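User: Design a sequence. Structure:
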């Protein structure tokens, strides 16, 4: 079988920011040879999707093509792009500056220019301390010992060795603490991504097991900025998982204060700040701190990305938060405007970045609120077709319930019976069926037997009564609030639009 063309060069070029692309073109224009690699670069830049044969034709026209030469051209261009990116990063990257200082020290040491070595070391140490670059600090200490030994400067070693050993111990402890906290954070995220509703009792227990770690009892003294960030992120994730919204708000706010107090770190890496802002926005929503929510939403939109991935993340997090706020307010018209703006901008980003349960859920919700049921069904089907995905299994279960609601709204009564059976089969395979899920299944069975408008209204009134006690159960309430089933039931009873009921609820929450 013919080998499938590799898209790794295409993927690399498409991941570059505009300024990185401009830098590459300047980087290669000094070469006066037939610049096939620049032509290939620009051909890839202009493609909307990877088409190998079109690229070959762009470079070679109707000339015979030797596969080996074309492969070599692609490989050479790939390496060239990487070299240009290395030089691009060196302009402002702290890592690159420290690496350059360490290389200077090596060169000077080999030529016995020890005084100049110490000058470079002082400059490097100042930067490394400011940015908590513990690996570079440890390497600088090794050079300090090596130079003293090369000079046979026993007096200096005798005087400085205790200080060097103390610093080494401190930097190693900081590295170990950061690594430990990062591993704990990843364990929490994996647990929650599998099922944010904690449907499994074992999963709920695993969160508490992670948090029993001795290093989480109290943040060690003299902890680094990076350790503090990770420590508060861990607690934020835990409080979110436990639906402890007050503490989630406090943890998120404290994390933002730490980050904004040392803004020089954000000029190097803004990725975690974007996540922290996003989490704080959601915590504001839960605590009805809407002024802080709107301020933070604007702050998120104005974050200056460093990389294309940052740009994607700002876009993704901003619109996820924006959609959620519009849904909360019941302002589905504003939500639809935001949805259209968001989808226009998606052309800049790879499609899989937004093919996620959460986005399909929000698309569905906004279109449902605008009574655009056909498009809502399209996104719901995309959502239901995400098979084999362990992320947010709770949303996959909710999607089955929403499928029943949507087909009811569309008047597809003949389909409801078969959908009801397939939904029941799906939920039975889960480790646990929520009580609200069982109530919804029973409700649709009753609805199928309702003879007229009076019996239908009675079924909705009974569902409203049955659902009410579940809002006091911590295990049930989060799922009931992901999609506002209570508002939908109320809209049917009062014969009002779903959006009207949502807006009434929001207005009532402000007065409360």
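Assistant: Done.
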């Amino acid at each position: 079988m013919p080998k499938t063309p590799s898209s790794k060069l295409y993927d690399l070029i498409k991941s570059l920011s505009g300024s990185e692309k401009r830098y590459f073109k300047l980087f290669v224009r000094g070469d006066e040879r037939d610049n096939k690699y620049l032509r290939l670069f620009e051909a890839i830049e202009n493609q909307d999707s990877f088409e190998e044969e079109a690229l070959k034709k762009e470079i070679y026209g109707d000339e015979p093509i030797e596969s080996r030469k074309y492969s070599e051209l692609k490989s050479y261009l790939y390496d060239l792009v990487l070299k240009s990116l290395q030089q691009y990063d060196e302009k402002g990257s702290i890592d690159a500056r420290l690496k350059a200082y360490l290389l200077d020290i090596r060169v000077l040491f080999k030529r016995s220019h020890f005084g100049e070595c110490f000058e470079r070391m002082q400059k490097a140490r100042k930067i490394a301390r400011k940015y908590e670059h513990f690996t570079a600090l440890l390497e600088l200490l090794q050079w300090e010992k090596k130079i003293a030994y090369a000079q046979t400067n026993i007096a200096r070693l005798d005087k400085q060795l205790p200080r060097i050993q103390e610093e080494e111990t401190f930097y190693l402890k900081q590295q170990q603490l950061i690594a430990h906290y990062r591993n704990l954070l990843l364990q929490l995220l994996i647990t929650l991504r599998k099922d944010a509703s904690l449907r499994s009792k074992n999963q709920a227990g695993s969160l508490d097991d992670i948090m029993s770690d001795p290093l989480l009892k109290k943040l060690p003294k003299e902890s680094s900025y990076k350790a503090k960030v990770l420590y508060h992120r861990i607690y934020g994730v835990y409080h979110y998982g436990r639906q402890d919204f007050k503490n989630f708000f406090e943890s998120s706010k404290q994390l933002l204060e730490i980050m904004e107090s040392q803004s020089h770190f954000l000029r190097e890496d803004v990725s975690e700040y974007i996540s922290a802002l996003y989490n704080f926005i959601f915590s504001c929503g839960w605590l009805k701190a809407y002024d802080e929510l709107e301020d933070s939403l604007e702050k998120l939109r104005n974050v200056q990305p460093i990389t294309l991935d940052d740009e994607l993340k700002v876009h993704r997090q901003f619109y996820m938060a924006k959609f959620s706020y519009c849904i909360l307010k019941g302002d589905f018209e504003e939500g639809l405007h935001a949805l259209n703006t968001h989808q226009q901008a998606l052309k800049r980003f790879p499609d899989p970045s937004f093919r996620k349960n959460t986005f399909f859920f929000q698309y569905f919700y906004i279109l449902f609120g605008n009574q655009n049921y056909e498009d809502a069904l399209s996104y719901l089907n995309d959502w239901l077709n995400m098979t084999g995905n362990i992320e947010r299994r709770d949303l996959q279960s909710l999607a089955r319930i929403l499928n029943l609601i949507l087909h009811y709204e569309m008047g597809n009564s003949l389909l409801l019976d078969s959908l009801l059976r397939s939904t029941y089969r799906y939920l039975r395979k889960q480790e646990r069926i929520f009580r609200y899920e069982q109530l919804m299944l029973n409700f649709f069975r009753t609805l199928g037997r309702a003879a007229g408008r009076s019996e239908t209204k009675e079924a909705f009134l009974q569902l409203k009564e049955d659902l009410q006690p579940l809002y006091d159960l911590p295990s049930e309430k989060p799922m009931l609030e992901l999609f506002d089933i209570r508002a939908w039931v109320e809209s049917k009873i009062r014969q009002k639009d779903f959006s009207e009921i949502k807006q009434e609820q929001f207005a009532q929450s402000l007065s409360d």
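The chain has 25 helices and no strands. The two ends are 68 Å apart (CA to CA).
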